């Protein structure tokens, strides 16, 4: 399945954000926190994919029922009223249900990635707070000086 332009932009942004953050990781705690966030997101995505494969038929049946309920206003477990429209094309119904199930699955994965990006943003914010210049002395003590000797000022 080819990705749309929007999906490609989201994927590039997701990977670029992770790569840009790795440049700011300095301590072992930073690396551990980054790895933990990545592992948890990867595990959640894998669990969603397994759940999708295992429960696809159930999700598809539920989506069919929802689509029929939206179109007819009735549940499948009740007989169809005489004046209710009959959806005779099973292939069209299956196609719509499949699209809905796959869209919901993709939304769940995107939500997991969004959560991961939020956690990474918090990590980046913590790193920048720690490395921010000291307001009293005008410099940060967590970084080493880039050069020695007199300044050009």
Report on the structure:
It is a single chain. The protein is an all-alpha fold and 153 residues long. 68% of the residues lie in helices and 0% in strands. The chain contains four helices and no strands. It has helices at 5-22, 28-54, 56-72, 90-131. Helix 1 packs parallel to helix 4 and helix 2 packs antiparallel against helix 4 (90-131). The radius of gyration is 26 Å and the shape is elongated.
- The unreliable regions are none
Q: What does the overall shape look like?
A: elongated
Tell how many strands the DSSP assignment holds.
Answer: 0
Write down the secondary-structure element order. HHHH
Largest sheet: none
Termini separation: 58 Å
Mean pLDDT: 82
Supply the number of helical segments. Answer: 4
